[in-house]
Amino acid sequence: MSHFTLVHGSCHGAWCWAEVIAALTRLGHSARAIDLPAHGADRTPPGEATLDRYAAAILGAIDKPTILVGHSAGGFPVTLAASLAPEKITRLIYLCAYVPALGQSIIDLRRAGPRQPLKGVVKADPGGVTYHADPAGARRTFFHDCPEDKAAAAVRLLGPEPIAPQATPLPPGLETPPHPRHYILCEDDRTIPPEYQADMARPFGRAVTRLPSGHSPFLTAPARLARLLDLLATEAPSLVP
């Protein structure tokens, strides 16, 4: 069976993957989620968080070949980690995630989207080091299809997001690691427009699966997401360009 390393997106932490880890374990896999620096239980000061430190944290958590899964903004650090240490990664899975492009940061990509559902939802904090998600806006965008109890708990767990890593493009030449890649497109996503996900996933060719979910399938459909990850763990490399 396979080992998965699960990487969260903006304002989240390892906590968001708990039900997926349990479901993957029931399917016979092993899985671990990490807190990126300055997220969750990690005590790195937000001003010291960088994209390089994110990648280093991911690689430091890997002790055996792994399938690396990145959600949303997690698409950037998983790509960098895989490019820096390709021998540690067996394949990459992007879950409604930003796909790095030459010379563009996450902020650049978000601004280039066809719609801006996060306008007014994410707001810079005093000092400009972090931003936060407005609770009502997060409920509307991140968790609109979640049961009320799960959405309320998730909103309480959201933390400030360091801005500098999201303003940093990947170093040139590291945008496309040499691994099989797959994109999971969330069709009812109200954070990253589904049509924009399709555009970012175009280089993946046939290696795209559509999931009838909002932005947080790890909360709304953890068992279904785990079954999909299980299938992708043995996906024929020929499906990946």
Automatic annotation (TrEMBL):
MF terms (GO), sorted A to Z: hydrolase activity
Record-given protein name: Alpha/beta fold hydrolase
Gene3D superfamilies named in the record: alpha/beta hydrolase
Keywords: Hydrolase
Pfam families recorded: Abhydrolase_6
Sequence ranges assigned to domain AB hydrolase-1 in this UniProt record: 6-227
